Amino acid sequence: MDAVIMAGGQGLRLGMGEKPCVELLGKPLISYVIDSLEKASHIDRILVAVSPSTPDTEDFVNEGYGEHVQVVNTAGDNYVGDMVYAVESSGIDEPVMIIMSDLPLVTPELLDSIIDAYEVCDKSSMSVFIPLSLCSEVGIRPDTVFNWSGQLIVPAGINILDGKYINEEQEYHNYLLEDPEIALNINTAEDLKRCENILKKR
């Protein structure tokens, strides 16, 4: 399965420049995601969707990863439009993982387990969520919360879609993970500090 890392946002909330290039323990955030994808056994190609807002990210990926990782230049107009363009322009007509660039705690094992869950969910798309209660436990205040059958859940920033139907509404499955490692994405300086503390204990 191919993976597209969405790395075209302006990162205004964090306020530290291009978010994918913000360093965590001396390493850019996007490197954590790329490195985990490279080690995941179910991932084939890795593509990074950049935009005019993230020129440094484009340079970093090209210089740091060369031919191993392909950069896709999107318009940067909106998340969905950029995602569709990245998938279509890359010729992906099979299931593809769409993942945010600000998830430094994802591991290869976690990514493989998500793909395993997709393979048996019998739907064309799958979104990964975490319980709101888990966010509270690790001190996260999410921006988006959904009510799913009476349970409050938070999108984790990882989805699998069928690239063949990327422009269509797809039947979906909500995959609920209770793994604190995936609960932390980086939106604030406090999030960065929390991730730093977790990584230091690994």
UniProtKB/TrEMBL annotation:
Q: Where is the signal peptide?
A: none
Q: Where do the MobA-like NTP transferase domain residues begin and end?
A: 3-119
Q: Which InterPro entries match?
A: MobA-like_NTP_Trfase (IPR025877), Nucleotide-diphossugar_trans (IPR029044)
EC number, UniProt record? 2.7.7.62
MF-aspect GO terms: cobinamide phosphate guanylyltransferase activity
What EC class does the entry list? Answer: transferase
Give yes or no: UniProt keyword DNA-binding.
Answer: no
Q: Which UniProt keywords apply?
A: Nucleotidyltransferase, Transferase
**Gene3D superfamilies according to UniProt:** Spore Coat Polysaccharide Biosynthesis Protein SpsA, Chain A
Matches recorded under Pfam families: NTP_transf_3
List the PANTHER family hit by this protein, alphabetically: ADENOSYLCOBINAMIDE-PHOSPHATE GUANYLYLTRANSFERASE, MOLYBDENUM COFACTOR GUANYLYLTRANSFERASE
Q: What is this protein called?
A: Putative adenosylcobinamide-phosphate guanylyltransferase CobY
Question: Origin organism of this chain?
Answer: Methanococcoides methylutens MM1
